[in-house]
């Protein structure tokens, strides 16, 4: 009987390690929390298939509908996890997105893109874009998902993500403008503790994306080098960072880039003191979670 190799060829602590025979072990695996009616928030959720061919899914969260004639903004979310861990169908994201859906009174859809390194980048970007195109297919009110047809205002779409998910959300906003995607209007871009690589060559990203240099000349790692940045389709951007986040400087760089590039919208900045990267998932007892959540909700609700 064959046994798995114990010789490690690549090790990225906190994410995954690769063995000589090619098999991969993650340092943490996501659970699966089934969709349901949340008794605390009254939020109902369901899972939908975006593509039968690729298996890409999404989870949709629907708040209590007080007035069936009034459509609600749609928040499209991309989860964090370094492109290689995490799941839109897991307990942490279910709890977070149920709370955000309830407090902001929006419909939320989180895309379950395929993970690296089994699915090499840019597959996560392609899946994320496919999810957004699927949203746009509802613009005539005859798309495949009744919740979006009946309750979502596609002239008020918010893109959001944390860490690698923030990278994906930014990419989709640029892609929507660059391709002239019709049927949706992106009004807000919520960028939380973004992952845009490092100033040194990013070997972690490069392993997941063999076609990338892993350096700042890759526009997916450095928006400043993206020739399509000025085509970003959005009215307002909020950049959130954490004081002790090892990626804080990249969030600051992103904010400064968006502030100076004259892309046509406005950009805001919010820093949480004394906290680390994505603390609202890793430090659930933090008193700052409620404050950060309020800042997000206020941004979403801005006129």
UniProtKB/TrEMBL annotation:
Database matches in InterPro entries: AB_hydrolase_3, AB_hydrolase_fold, Carboxylest/Gibb_receptor
UniProt-listed SUPFAM superfamilies: alpha/beta-Hydrolases
MF terms (GO), sorted A to Z: hydrolase activity
Pfam families, per database record: Abhydrolase_3
UniProt domain Alpha/beta hydrolase fold-3: residue ranges: 75-280
Family per similarity comment: Belongs to the 'GDXG' lipolytic enzyme family.
Protein name: Alpha/beta hydrolase fold-3 domain-containing protein
């Amino acid at each position: 009987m064959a046994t798995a190799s114990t010789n490690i060829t690549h090790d990225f602590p906190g994410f995954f390690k690769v063995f000589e025979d090619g098999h991969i072990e993650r340092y943490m695996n996501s659970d699966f929390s089934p969709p349901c009616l949340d008794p605390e928030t009254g939020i109902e959720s369901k899972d939908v298939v975006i593509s039968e061919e690729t298996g890409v899914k999404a989870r949709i969260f629907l708040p209590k509908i007080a007035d069936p004639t009034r459509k609600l903004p749609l928040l499209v979310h991309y989860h964090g996890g370094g492109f290689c861990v995490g799941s839109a169908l897991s307990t942490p994201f279910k709890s977070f997105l149920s709370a955000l859906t309830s407090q902001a009174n929006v419909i939320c859809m989180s895309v379950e893109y395929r993970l690296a390194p089994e699915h090499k980048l840019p597959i996560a970007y392609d899946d994320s874009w496919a999810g957004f195109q699927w949203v746009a297919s509802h613009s005539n009110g005859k798309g495949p998902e009744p919740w979006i047809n009946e309750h979502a205002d596609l002239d008020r779409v918010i893109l959001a993500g944390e860490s690698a998910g923030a990278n994906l959300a930014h990419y989709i906003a640029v892609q929507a403008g660059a391709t002239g995607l019709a049927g949706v209007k992106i009004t807000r871009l919520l960028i939380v503790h973004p992952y845009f690589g490092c100033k040194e060559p990013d070997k972690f990203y490069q392993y997941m994306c063999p076609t990338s240099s892993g350096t700042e000349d890759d526009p997916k790692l450095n928006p400043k080098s993206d020739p399509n940045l000025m085509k970003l389709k959005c009215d307002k951007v909020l950049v959130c960072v954490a004081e002790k986040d090892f990626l804080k400087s990249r969030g600051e760089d992103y904010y400064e880039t968006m502030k100076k590039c004259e892309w046509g919208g406005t950009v805001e900045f919010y820093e949480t003191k004394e906290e680390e990267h994505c603390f609202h998932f890793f430090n659930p007892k933090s008193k700052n979670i409620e404050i950060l959540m309020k800042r997000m909700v206020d941004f979403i609700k801005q006129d």
